[in-house]
Each structure stands twice: as C-alpha cells, then as structure tokens.
Amino acid sequence: MLYIPLYFEALRTRPLLLFYLATLAQAALWVLVPLMFYAAPPGELPVVLAIGHEFPLNGNFGPPLAYWLAEIAFRSAGLFGVYMLSQICVITTYWCVFALGRVMVGPSHAALAVLLMVGVYVFTVSTPDFSPPVLAMALWAVVLLHYWRAVIEKRHRSWYVLGCAAALILLTSDAALLLLSLLALFTVMSERGRAVVGTIEPWIVAAALVVVLFVHLLWLEGASDGLTPALARLRGAEMAEANTVAWLRLVGALVLAHAGLAILVVLASGWPRSHAPPAPALTRPPVDSSVAIFVKFFALLPALLATIVAVLVAVRQPIGGAAPLLVLSGLAVVVTASDSIELHHQRILGYAWAGLLLMPAILVPAAIVLLPWTTGTDLKVAQPAAAMGRFFAENFARRTGRPLAIVGGDLRTAALVALAAPSRPGVYFDSEPERAPWITAADIRDKGAVIVWPAANTDPTPPPAIRANFPDLVPEVPQTFERPLQGRLPPLRIGWGMIRPANASAAAPR
Question: Which of 115, 252, 312, 409 could form a disulfide with 451 if both were Cys (CB 3.0 to 4.6 A apart)?
C-alpha cells in the first residue's frame, strides 16, 4: 500500500499554508525557549545591547543599524522584544525565499526550499542571539527578491523597495558593498540586466544611495588601517599555507552549517536504498537558464568572496557573518534538482525534518538542566544575570547615594551586569576605549563605576589588564552568586571593585 504523508499532500495542494505553519512554528519555538529557560541572554547579545544602549553614530563596531534596533526592541519589550525582532528577521528571510522560489520553480518547490532551510544551522539554533548578521540576512533576502522583480520581471515599484533595502543593509553590514558590487556585476553580465540600465528607476535609486554609500565608506575607513599590514603579510611566501588553511576552515564551517540540509537531501534521494515506492513526484515546468544562473551566482559567489576577504583582513568569520551568505542554500538545492522531484523515505524524512526543528529546542533546555550535573559545564545562558545586576547596582547606590552609571572590566560580564541592573548603566570598553568614545576616563572619575571580572576563588586581586587600566581600583572580596541549577559546578564568583565618584559624599555608608 502506498503511504502518502500529510506534509507531502500539503506540499502539493497547500504549499503556502505549509510554509506559514513551518515558519511560524520555528519562530515560536525560538522565542519561547530563551524566554523560559535562559537566565542570561545568549552569545554576544549582552554586548550588542551594551553598544546599542549608546545609539552610536560611528562605525567603530561596524554599521550601527542592528545595534539601534536591538536597543529599541529592548526598551520597548525587554528581551522578549529582542527575541521577537530576531525571529521577524528569520520570517522575513523565509518569506523572501518562498516568494522568489514561487516565481522561479513554482509554489510547491518554493515551500520545499524553505523546509530545507531548517537544516541550515544559522537559521535555527543561533537566531535568538540577535546581531548585525541576523538583520543583514533579512535585508539580503529582500534585496535579492526585489532585484529579481525589478530587473527580470520589470516591476518598476520594486526598484524603490530595492533601494530602501540596499540603504538599510549599508547601515547594517560590512558585507553590503560585496552584495551591491555583485548585483552591479550581474546586471552588466546579463542581457536583461543591461536592458534596464536605460530606464530611469535604477539611476534614481543609485543617486539616492550615494549619500548612504558615502557614510558606509567613512565607517570602513578605519578598517583600512588594519588592511595595509594584512596585505603586507600576504606577500610573504610563508603565509601562503597559513592563509590557505584559514580559508579552508571558513569554507568548511559554511559547509558544516548545512549538515541538517544534507541529511534531508540524502534521505529524500533514496539512500539508504528502500524497497518502498517514493511518493508521487513533485513536478514543475523546466527551470529557465536565467533562474539557475541567478540562484547559483548569488548562492556561491558571495560566500567565496566573503571568506577570501576575511582571510585578507585576518578575521575569524566571513565578512558580514555566515547568515546572509546562506540565504539561497535551500533554493539552490531545489533549482539544481530535477524538474520532477521524488521524495523517498517519506515517513523517515518527515521525522527527520521534525527532529531538526524540534530537537535543538529540546536539547537546549536539557543541556541547561543536565550538563551542570554531568560534565560540570558552565553555560553562559545559565548565569544569574538578574541577581548580578541587582547586587552591584544596589551596592553602588548604597555606598555613594547615586545610581550606578558605568560598569567596566571583563566585557561580557560587564555587559551582563549593565543589562540587568535597574539603572541600566553604560559599559566602558576599557580594553579598546577609542572604539567606544561615549564613556571616557573622565566620566568614570565624575560618575564612578563598578569594575567586574570572573574570579576563580576568593582572592580579590584583579587580573593584570584590569589592574593596569584602573590603577586606583580598590578590589572587594569576590561575590558568589547562586546559579538556577548549580549541579557539580564550582561557585560562580565575580570579582569586583568600585571607583567612587569624585564628589561623592564621604559619609556615604560602606
């Protein structure tokens, strides 16, 4: 008896409904999981919010739009707002891929392309950690969709949406120039692209982008100081092997991010061999050669160039992050496949897809509960941020009669304390103060500060770097905080010291 799974029937008859169910289910999972189980924000999110708190206008941390939006979302709805913002970016990305695929390969194959994206790591597990690459991912997808509509479908209004999205991505990502350069190259190389050059809309959009592009280039100017010595190192023959290894590592990481997608493709293709017949084929009209060229061009070349540039400037991840570079991965697989796609192992394939969607959301809470008892792993998301922020803010206010305004020291610890403290202090980047000019040494003398660092024991001596940066710091006995699940972990100790404001009352109690 032929088994036809429900999801396959939905692919054939209700692809849009299936798209919404899958996309919204994933978004709901990755809003609820961090809200329910994280005691502290994941990854670099505390640092992103520490930067966004100051609404920077310079580009010392890269184009600032993502930092601004993260801060606005946090002020509006707390961490729930930030997690929602991240998932809105994911939903936008998926919608653009679906809309692009619908006109290229039909709605059923477009929905299949989106379903495959659940197997790409950066679109699921890491999305609660909102950052510039997450925002750039959504804008990247919007740019590609409306470029196709403007150039290939000749929708004149899409030029203006394209221009707005291009301006926003210039305000978001270091990889924006890479994308826009490739769009210009594709326009010149393709016959349809050259045909639109004679119309007025692209020139209006280009003229409007000049101002934003100029600002973007000003932000990149500081990077040129580090680029010259990096290029000089490339001339050494001894660096050739190291650079090749670094590039292969970046490419390997991008390939590894597709592990889940590869599992789905292998199962759907019929390996291991099964005697059960495949489901009826999903058919489509033959794919136009311009479609295949467009998808392969923007699925492969940005990743290739971003990894090469990353090696040139000696950074450890592709320029602009991995997320924007993988936007077309699922669609590229579907476009490359046959016009008639047969899905083998239908039941196992459905379980595998559900597993890729649900298992990370199950494993994260399980890891938070089990790892402290088994391996003694200290997870950053399990640190008691609220208790840390409350303790240091209350101590500073009680001793000085002022609300805590500045936190410094170890960057992540300081950002975590600043995020959770009721007064929402600023973070002093003492290791790189020139990158964060909104807080100076004079501000610390005037307003005072709390300096924090992870401590292994009760020794109050601060690390050498902190002692060098704050020679007048009087360290206190490290404070011990109780984790939500202590397990076999050693006590969580945070070393700290306080710098009193210059004109603080001498009678303030200690």
Answer: 409
Cβ distance 408 to 396 under 8 Å? no
pLDDT at 282 over 70: yes
Q: Does some domain include residue 280? A: no
Which residues share a beta bridge with 474?
498
Segment of 231-235, 306-310, 372-376 carrying the highest mean pLDDT: 306-310
Nearest one of 394, 464, 389 to 430, comparing CA atoms: 464
Take residue 19 and report the two structure tokens written for it.
Answer: 């798209």
Provide the domain limits for residue 266: 15-274+285-365
Same domain, 387 and 360: no
The per-residue pLDDT for range 311-334, each reduced to its tens digit, is: 888 888 999 999 999 999 999 999
Cα–Cα distance for residue pair 304/318, rounded to 1 Å: 9
End-to-end C-alpha distance for the chain, whole angstroms: 80
Instruction: Give the end of a domain, one of 303, 333, 365.
Output: 365
Dump pLDDT digits (tens) for 362-400: 998 999 999 999 888 888 999 999 999 999 999 999 999
Boundary-marking domain end, from 336, 365, 394: 365
Phi and psi at residue 474, in whole multiples of 5°?
Answer: -105, 105
CB 67 within 8 A of CB 48: yes
Note the maximum CA span of the chain: 87
Rounded to the nearest 5°, which phi and psi values hold at 176? Answer: -60, -45
